[in-house]
Automatic annotation (TrEMBL):
One of its GO terms (cellular component) is cell cortex. This is G-protein-signaling modulator 2. The keyword Cytoplasm applies. The lineage of its organism: Eukaryota, Metazoa, Ecdysozoa, Arthropoda, Hexapoda. TPR repeats lie at residues 62-95, 242-275. SUPFAM superfamilies: TPR-like. It is found in: Cell membrane; Cytoplasm. It comes from the Eukaryota. GO terms for molecular function: G-protein alpha-subunit binding; GDP-dissociation inhibitor activity; identical protein binding. It comes from Pieris brassicae.
Length: 614
C-alpha cells in the first residue's frame, strides 16, 4: 500500500491528533515522491521524520513501514529492511488486514531470500500464497508464486556453487530446489496468461529458461528464452530483449550451435550500445571473442577480445583484463603471432599475480614456457620464480586470511596509544638519569600491565568525577590525638563520619532515580511512530524498561561509526560458471591448435647443411 492511498484515513482522526497526523502524512508523501524519483536515501530521511512526528492512523503508519522497508532494501541495508517489514506485518495482523499481511509477508520473504535465510523466506512466501488464495486475489497469488520460484531458484544456485558442478550435473539436493522453482514458475506463467499480464508472463518465461539451463535442458531453455524475447519485443522492453538474446547465446553454446550463438551475442552487443551499458557491452565482446575462437575464426576473435580488453581497462576491471589478455594470447598463438602471444601471456601472469589467482598464474606460466620454446628463448625468459625475500607468496583466500590473522595477533594496540608512548618515554628518561642499564628484555613493559594501567587511569578519572565535595559545615571534626583517647571515642567519630557520607550520597542517588511508570497495555504502542490515543497524563508512552532502552540506545547509536560501503565494480566478464563451461568446450580445440616445436627439423636441416658444405 502506498502512502498516498492512506491519505483519506486522516479525515476520521480526532481533533487532538489532526495536526501531528497531517504533518506525518505530508512528510511521508514527500518521502514516497523522492523514492519514486530514485533518491531513496533522501526518501528514507523523510520517512524517518514522519515516524518521529507520529500518527495514530494505523494504515498510514503501515504504508510508511512498507515504503521504508522497500527503500532500505533498495539501498542494500537488508537488516533494516527486514525490521520495518516485520513492523508492517505486526501492524497488519493487529488491524486484521489480510491483504496487508499478505503483502508484508511477501516483502519479508524477498528480504530474507537476499539475506540467505531460505527456510524463513519460504515460510513467509507460503503464508503470502495461502492468504492470497483465501482472498481470491489472482494478482497477489501470482506474485506469491513468482516469489516462491525465486526463493527456490536462489537456494538451488547457492547450494550449487559449493560443488562447482556443470549445468545438468548438480547433486540431487540442488536439482530438487530447481525443479520446485520450475513448478512455481509454471503455475505463475499459467496464471499470468489467464489474467492477461504480458510483462509478468515474460518474466516467468525468462526465469523458466534460466532454471532449465541450470538443469541441463538447453533445448527447453531456448524455447522459453525465445518466448521471452518475443514478449519483450511486443511490449518494447529493450533491456529484457537484451537479456533474452544473451541467454539464448549461452544456451546455443552448450548445444554446439556456435553460429546461432554468435548472432544472438551480436544482437546483445547492439542493444547494449543502444542502452549505453558499457559493462554488458564488454561482456558481449568477450562472449563473441570466445565464440569465434570456437569457430576457428581467430582474426575476428582477436578483434572482439581487443575491444573487451579496452573496455575492461576503462572500467578498471582487473579480472576482465586478465581474461582478455589470456584470450588474446591464445588468439595470437593460433594466428602465428608468437611474440604478441608471449606479451599477452606475460600480462596475464602479472595480473593473476596481482589478484592472487594461483590457477591463472600456473596457466600463464605454462603458456609462457611453450611460447619461449617456439621462439627459441630461455624457458624462464621474463618470468622467474619469486624469492622468499623479494615478494610474498600468492595471496590465495586462505593465505590472505592467514597473513592477516598473524599480523593482528602480533600487533599490540595498547603499546601504540599516546598514553602508553608518553609513559614509555618517561620511564626511559628516568632510567637514563639514574644511570640504570637494563637488559633489552626488561625495557618493554608487558602489554597486560600497560592495559591494566590504562584502565585504572581512565576509571580513576570517572570515579573522581563522582566524589562528593565536603562542605564546611559537614566536614568531620578532627579526631582527638590525646593518648588518653579511648576506643569508645574512635567508634563514635567513625559513626559520625559514616552518617555524614550516607546523607551526602543519598541526595545524589535520589536525584538520579527514575520514576517507575505503569506498563503500557497496548502492544501496538511499542511500534515506532504510533502515538497513544489516550491523554499523556493518564497513560505513559512507554514502560520503565523501554524508556531505559530508548535512552541508552540513542547514546550507543550516537557513538557508532558506519563503515563506508565500497561501490561495486561492474564486471566485464560473464558469470564464472559460464566461463568455466566455455573453457572446457574450448580446451579440446585449443589442444588441436597447439604448435609443435620444430626442434628436430632444425637439427636435421643443420646436419644437412653441414654435410653439403663438406
Amino acid at each position: 500500500m502506498s502512502v498516498s492511498a492512506s491519505a483519506e484515513n486522516l479525515s476520521t482522526a480526532d481533533t487532538q491528533s489532526c495536526d501531528g497526523g497531517s504533518m506525518c502524512l505530508e512528510l511521508a508523501l514527500e518521502g514516497e515522491r523522492l523514492c519514486k524519483a530514485g533518491d531513496c536515501r533522501a526518501g528514507v530521511a523523510f520517512f524517518q521524520a514522519a515516524i518521529q512526528a507520529g500518527t495514530d492512523d494505523l494504515r498510514t503508519l503501515s504504508a510508511i513501514y512498507s515504503q521504508l522497508g522497500n527503500a532500505y532494501f533498495y539501498l542494500g541495508d537488508y537488516n533494516k529492511a527486514m525490521q520495518y517489514h516485520k513492523h508492517d506485518l505486526t501492524l497488519a495482523r493487529t488491524m486484521e488486514d489480510k491483504l496487508g499481511e499478505a503483502k508484508a509477508s511477501g516483502n519479508l520473504g524477498n528480504t530474507l531470500k537476499v539475506m540467505g535465510k531460505f527456510t524463513e523466506a519460504i515460510q513467509c512466501c507460503q503464508r503470502h500464497l495461502e492468504i492470497s488464495r483465501t482472498l481470491g486475489d489472482k494478482l497477489s497469488e501470482g506474485r506469491a508464486l513468482y516469489n516462491l520460484g525465486n526463493v527456490y531458484h536462489a537456494q538451488g544456485k547457492h547450494l550449487g556453487r559449493a560443488g562447482q558442478s556443470d549445468p545438468g550435473h548438480f547433486p540431487q539436493e540442488v536439482r530438487d530446489c530447481l525443479l520446485q522453482a520450475v513448478t512455481y514458475y509454471e503455475e505463475n506463467l499459467e496464471l499470468m496468461r489467464s489474467v492477461g499480464d504480458r510483462q509478468a508472463a515474460g518474466r516467468a518465461c525468462g526465469n523458466l529458461g534460466n532454471t532449465c539451463y541450470l538443469l541441463g535442458d538447453f533445448a527447453k531453455a531456448i524455447w522459453y528464452h525465445k518466448e521471452r524475447l518475443r514478449i519483450a519485443q511486443e511490449v518494447g522492453d529493450r533491456a529484457a530483449e537484451r537479456r533474452a538474446n544473451s541467454n539464448l547465446g549461452n544456451s546455443h553454446i552448450f548445444l554446439g550451435q556456435f553460429e546461432n550463438a554468435a548472432q544472438h551475442y551480436k544482437r546483445t552487443l547492439a542493444l547494449a550500445e543502444e542502452l549505453g551499458d558499457a559493462a554488458v557491452e564488454a561482456q558481449a565482446c568477450y562472449s563473441l571473442g570466445n565464440t569465434y575462437t570456437l569457430l576457428r575464426e581467430y582474426r575476428v576473435a582477436e578483434e572482439y577480445h581487443a575491444r573487451h580488453l579496452a573496455a575492461a581497462r576503462a572500467l578498471n576491471d582487473r579480472v576482465g583484463e586478465g581474461r582478455a589478455c589470456w584470450s588474446l594470447g591464445n588468439a595470437h598463438a593460433a594466428l602465428g603471432n608468437h611474440e604478441k602471444a608471449l606479451y599477452y601471456a606475460k600480462e596475464h601472469y602479472n595480473i593473476s599475480k596481482e589478484l592472487g589467482d594461483v590457477l591463472g598464474m600456473a596457466t600463464a606460466q605454462m603458456n609462457i614456457g611453450d611460447l619461449c620454446k617456439v621462439l627459441g628463448l630461455p624457458a624462464d625468459n621474463g618470468i622467474s620464480p619469486p624469492s622468499p625475500r623479494a615478494a610474498p607468496p600468492p595471496r590465495t583466500p586462505f593465505n590472505a586470511l592467514r597473513v592477516r590473522r598473524q599480523s593482528m595477533e602480533q600487533l599490540s594496540l595498547i603499546q601504540i596509544t599516546p598514553e602508553a608512548k608518553k609513559k614509555e618515554a618517561e620511564r626511559s628518561e628516568a632510567a637514563e638519569s639514574r644511570g640504570v642499564a637494563r637488559a633489552s628484555s626488561e625495557d618493554t613493559e608487558h602489554p597486560a600491565e600497560v592495559f591494566m594501567e590504562l584502565i585504572a587511569k581512565s576509571q580513576a578519572q570517572r570515579m573522581d568525577e563522582q566524589r562528593a565535595t565536603l562542605d564546611k559545615e559537614n566536614r568531620p571534626r578532627p579526631l582527638p590525638r590525646s593518648s588518653s583517647a579511648t576506643s569508645n571515642s574512635k567508634s563514635e567519630a567513625m559513626t559520625e563520619m559514616m552518617n555524614m557520607i550516607s546523607s551526602l550520597q543519598s541526595k545524589r542517588m535520589d536525584s538520579q532515580r527514575a520514576e517507575l511508570r505503569p506498563v503500557q497495555e497496548s502492544t501496538g504502542a511499542s511500534l515506532p511512530g504510533l502515538r497513544s490515543q489516550q491523554t499523556r497524563s493518564t497513560k505513559p508512552e512507554d514502560d520503565f524498561l523501554d524508556m531505559i532502552a530508548r535512552v541508552q540506545g540513542s547514546r550507543i547509536e550516537d557513538q557508532r561509526s558506519e563503515l563506508p560501503r565500497p561501490k561495486p565494480k561492474e564486471s566485464t566478464v560473464p558469470d564464472d560458471d559460464f566461463f568455466a563451461q566455455l573453457m572446457k568446450a574450448q580446451s579440446g580445440r585449443l589442444d588441436d591448435q597447439r604448435a609443435t616445436i620444430p626442434l628436430q627439423d632444425r637439427q636435421n636441416k643443420a646436419a644437412t647443411a653441414s654435410s653439403s658444405k663438406k
